[in-house]
Amino acid sequence: MMFYKETRLKETSIGKIPLDWGITKVGDVSLDLVGGGTPSTTDPDYWGGDIAWMTSAHINGKEVTSGQKYITKKGLENSATHIVPKDNLLIATRVGIGKAAVNRIDIAISQDLTGVVVEKTKILTEFLYWCVISNGKKLKSLAQGSTIKGILREDLGHLLVLHLSLSEQRAIVGVLGVVDLAVAKAGEVIAKTERLKKGLMQELLTKGIGHKEYKQTPIGKTPTSWQVSTIGDVCDQRNEMIQPSGNNNELLVGLEHVNSGETRLHSYAEGVMVKSSKFKFYAGDVLYGKLRPYLDKAVVADFDGICSTDLLVLKRKENVLKEFLVYVLHSNSFLKHAIATTSGTNHPRTSWSAISKFKFGLPERSQQQRIAETLSSVDKKLELEKKEKSRLERIKQGLMDLLLTGKVRVKVD
């Protein structure tokens, strides 16, 4: 496959494109724009059938190959949902605006989606997919409404997309498809490593390394040399507060700076004016996200700073290593405990009082070190895999920017 730089460009309403390319509207390259709906969830006769149905939450990649749920013919006939024939395009026009996918099966859709029945003599479904994905910001700007914003089908029909030969569309789709597949494969590798880590955590935090003798305890069987401790036994809550100040040179950590499932901080804000009270933390403390604990946020701080009050600052005692403690806070059993102790509807939170009561097996320090080092090696592997995925995503974005503007073209025989 040959690429070449295009120098003959013209100015259009969507920017510079090659002289032999044109612009068209989604409505002009589609046979129909299909709306959706949800059958009543209180009527069991509408659900459990053989008709695939989905919401925008089911879009997790370029293609949809199965239903999120399944409805009956009665459910189809007694609701606003419609079936989008396979090999067309689903666009999130209400919740998750900007997401899109090619449906590889006939599927009924919810009100969050619009189905574009593509006129394939004018545009390839996959090429339209890439055009829509690259127009994410434009799609979001079309949204209307106050509480839940949505895009009108009429406005979606007026969205401008590229018009070029089917053969060149096919070539562009082929190139972008290769790198997209590489991104997907990288995601699968990460998911596999994350499953490995979860399994290892369960094994190591309950059975340890090299133990042969176990005893029955209130939390199940543990190695005989281990103690049963609580979070409150091994650390205290640090409540040192920093009040609002016009000048702030502290490093600020918010909940948004803590990545789910990770044990180390990778980002923070600096030079930010503090407008509300914050907690002070020190290197070696553990920051735990009490807001929406299902997000699984807990990290070891390796610098001094201040943090949001949505984070609890845990000051560890001498009987626990910080590297071991943070893995306990990521364990499945702790997550279940934290989620079960939340209060509040819109902003569910757990508390120090609740998590301090969580019981776990506490090994001797040398065993804590071995467990933490084993899990840390998996974390390092995960970090490398995530960096590789990010690199591939940058390549994909760069190719989209070049190929979908015609700045670089694919030579078509």
In short:
The chain has helices at 73-77, 125-133, 136-141, 153-157, 166-207, 231-234, 322-329, 332-340, 352-355, 365-403, and strands at residues 3-5, 9-12, 15-18, 22-25, 30-34, 47-54, 63-64, 69-71, 83-84, 88-92, 100-103, 107-109, 113-118, 160-163, 214-217, 220-223, 227-230, 235-237, 241-242, 251-253, 269-270, 278-281, 286-289, 298-300, 305-307, 311-316, 359-362, 408-410. By secondary structure, it is an alpha+beta fold. A hairpin with a 2-residue loop joins strand 15 (214-217) and strand 16.
What order do the helices and strands come in, and which of them pair?
Blueprint: E1 3-5, E2 9-12, E3 15-18, E4 22-25, E5 30-34, E6 47-54, E7 63-64, E8 69-71, H1 73-77, E9 83-84, E10 88-92, E11 100-103, E12 107-109, E13 113-118, H2 125-133, H3 136-141, H4 153-157, E14 160-163, H5 166-207, E15 214-217, E16 220-223, E17 227-230, H6 231-234, E18 235-237, E19 241-242, E20 251-253, E21 269-270, E22 278-281, E23 286-289, E24 298-300, E25 305-307, E26 311-316, H7 322-329, H8 332-340, H9 352-355, E27 359-362, H10 365-403, E28 408-410
Parallel strand pairs: 6-12, 7-11, 20-25
Antiparallel strand pairs: 1-28, 2-3, 4-14, 5-13, 6-8, 9-12, 10-11, 10-13, 15-16, 17-27, 18-26, 19-22, 20-21, 22-25, 23-24, 23-26
Helix pairs in contact: 5-10
